[in-house]
């Protein structure tokens, strides 16, 4: 099987192109695609660090580094729960809220661009197929050696 005949090749290439496009736009706002995604996923009443790790699918060390950079940049602040010192929530600063709006606007604009160029049937088929690939991926039994 040739690489360009595999599903995972196209998934990777498409995601890299989407990510690169977002990074180019985000750089104009002084952030990265990953930081924009993080900002979009922090709720007004704070979001637990553990929830952010799950959303981003990153390891604790990478998340910690990203949160430290975001805190140093004045985008977020962290608070430890009074009842459970192990529980930490992340909150947006006013500057973080401003950058979150910019990130959200970019996502909305990009999706509008795609939606204008894909028919409803194409979008529904794509989403359905991606959902199925995700389910199959999660159910895939690793080969035993």
UniProtKB/TrEMBL annotation:
<protein>
    <submittedName>
        <fullName>MarR family winged helix-turn-helix transcriptional regulator</fullName>
    </submittedName>
</protein>
<feature type="domain" description="HTH marR-type">
    <location>
        <begin position="1"/>
        <end position="135"/>
    </location>
</feature>
<dbReference type="Pfam" id="PF01047">
    <property type="entry name" value="MarR"/>
</dbReference>
<keyword id="KW-0804">Transcription</keyword>
<dbReference type="InterPro" id="IPR036390">
    <property type="entry name" value="WH_DNA-bd_sf"/>
</dbReference>
<keyword id="KW-0805">Transcription regulation</keyword>
<dbReference type="InterPro" id="IPR023187">
    <property type="entry name" value="Tscrpt_reg_MarR-type_CS"/>
</dbReference>
<keyword id="KW-0238">DNA-binding</keyword>
<dbReference type="InterPro" id="IPR036388">
    <property type="entry name" value="WH-like_DNA-bd_sf"/>
</dbReference>
<dbReference type="InterPro" id="IPR000835">
    <property type="entry name" value="HTH_MarR-typ"/>
</dbReference>
């Amino acid at each position: 099987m040739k690489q360009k005949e595999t599903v995972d090749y196209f998934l990777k290439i498409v995601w890299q192109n989407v990510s690169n496009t977002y990074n180019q736009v985000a750089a104009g706002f002084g952030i990265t695609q990953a930081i924009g995604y993080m900002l979009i996923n922090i709720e007004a009443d704070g979001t637990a660090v553990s929830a952010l790790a799950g959303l981003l699918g990153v390891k604790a060390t990478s998340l910690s580094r990203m949160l430290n950079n975001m805190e140093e940049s004045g985008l977020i602040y962290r608070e430890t729960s009074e009842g459970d010192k192990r529980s930490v929530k992340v909150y947006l600063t006013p500057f973080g809220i401003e950058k979150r709006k910019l990130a959200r606007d970019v996502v909305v604009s990009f999706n509008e661009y795609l939606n204008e160029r894909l028919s409803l049937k194409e979008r529904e088929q794509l989403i359905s197929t991606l959902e199925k690939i995700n389910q199959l991926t999660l159910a895939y039994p690793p080969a035993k050696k």
